[in-house]
Amino acid sequence: MLLSLLKILLFFSVVLAGALAVMRLAEADQVLRVVFNGVEYTLGPVQIIVLALLVVLAGWLTVQLLRLAIAFLRFLAGDRTAIDRHFARKRERKGYQAVADGMLAVASGEGKLAQDKARKAAKYLDQPHVTNLLAAQAAEVAGDTARAEVAYRTMLTDPRTRFVAVRGLMQQRLAAGDTQTALQLAQKAYALRPSHTELQDTLLTLQTREHDWKGARSVLKDKRRQGALPQDVALRRDAVLALQEAREVLAHGNSISAREAAISANRASPDLVPAAVLAARSYLAKKDTRNATRVLQKTWSVQPHPSVAAAYAEIVPDETPVQRLRRFEDLIKQAPTHEESRLLQAELMLAAEDFPGARRAIGDIAEKHPTVRSLSIMAAIERGEGAEDSVVRAWLARAMTASRGPQWVCDKCHNVMTDWAPVCDSCGGFDTLTWREPPMDLRLAGTAGNTVTMLPLLVARESHGDHAPSDHTDASMAPRPAGPAPAPAPKAKAARVVEVAHVAPGMVPRESDYEPSMTVTDPELDIPAPPATVHIVGKPDSPAKPVAAAGPVVVSIRQAPDPFVRPDVEPQDERTARKGD
């Protein structure tokens, strides 16, 4: 504000001084007399000043006319002159205007217009690094990949546009599905600009798809050194890459290198369950049970998982259920309140035939968080305690429509995978799988083979052969039918099931021909029963064909299946009886 006021005062001061000077000169008596060709001219002070200004203006015009004449003569002679510069500036303005219009057309998706502006810009401008880039982008927007590739290859010769050209060719190969060529181009672009964040991510994705785990670890190291990734995220991803590298090394037979890589991956990220399992099995291969136990207990304290329990059971494979229950107490106490720990304890007690203890261990999980696994455990507990078949079937019916529980779910696309992998099968995301329960709308779309229910090592006395489970498919991931664990049940007599249908002789019975089932047995008798005879319905005048049975006889006359029970699911005792027959 003060500066503007000073400028105004200075302007008026100059104007006032000029006016006063002109007034003083007008009042002066001195004149200038000029005699030219016998004529005398008398000029006052003001006239003298005006004459001087006219003389100066005339001199300037004369000089400009002389320069223009000289420039015209040089133009005719072929030299670069002001005229050339004038037309060059005019062409440059047109060229940059075409570039601006072309960029706007590219941004708005008008490919044809963008190509026209690119050709116009190339005509008026001598800036190939600008016009070629505009031509390539315009061709991509218009869908002309061949012209875009030609423009990118032309840009390879200019150091200023070499990186942009390589990156553009890489994106073209990615769009075409040629990942191998795209990986080579990404590596060249990365050599030109190692600090380019987007290129680093693209290179990491391509390297993981092509299983170049060593190269991916190198790029990840650069990202961590440049500060593009937080320290904890970088360590986690490096552990994932080290784990996958160990898997492939192990597949090629180099077990020593695989063990070291697995152990280093587990140290970098203790919550990475597959790394902990592979590290524990690496220790077991070296007969180091102490470190294997330590690794699994540490992982269980961070992330309880059935695979960890399966690997923990492999430490002592030939122990009794009671010994196993006692040894697993050290593992369970690492996270005693976790749902996985309570389910594991219930399964161990089922194997040890401690059905009341299994009921106490599982508590109210089956009511608050019903899953296939928890409901199957409850069915096994009821069967082990001698409950009626209707109670067991009720639990199994609920289990058939319940959630499968936690699974490997992609955080990016919510894809459910059977086994853990560093890359999602659906979206290709790296390190996006999390062990959690999928959303409600994806539970039915889950992979049918992902039945992490009851550990086989806890429900059966399976011998451990030479072929141990792989590092990504443990014993707990083996598919089994949804149902209770085959827990030891009270002694039951063998029963023979005979189904009787009311049909005419020689006709094939249908499902509707069966009537409601009826069971005839005596559970109290523990002595062999005399052979029973069941008469099959035939013609009235034909003799009945006797069928001998070696124990209590179950006569079952079936009707249409219950809509709440799967028709292919039969009671456990009847399946056993049929198999025995």
Descriptive notes:
Strand 3 (407-410) and strand 4 (416-417) form a beta hairpin. The protein is elongated. The protein contains 24 helices and nine strands. The chain starts with a helix and ends with a helix. Helix 6 (145-155) packs antiparallel against helix 7, helix 12 packs across helix 13 and helix 13 (273-285) packs parallel to helix 15. It has a three-stranded antiparallel β-sheet, with no helix packed on it. A two-stranded antiparallel ribbon has the order 1-2. The longest helix has 33 residues, at 45-77. Helix content is 56%, strand content 6%. The chain is mainly alpha-helical.
Question: Features of this protein?
Answer:
mainly alpha; elongated; 56% helix; three-stranded antiparallel sheet; 9 strands; 581 residues
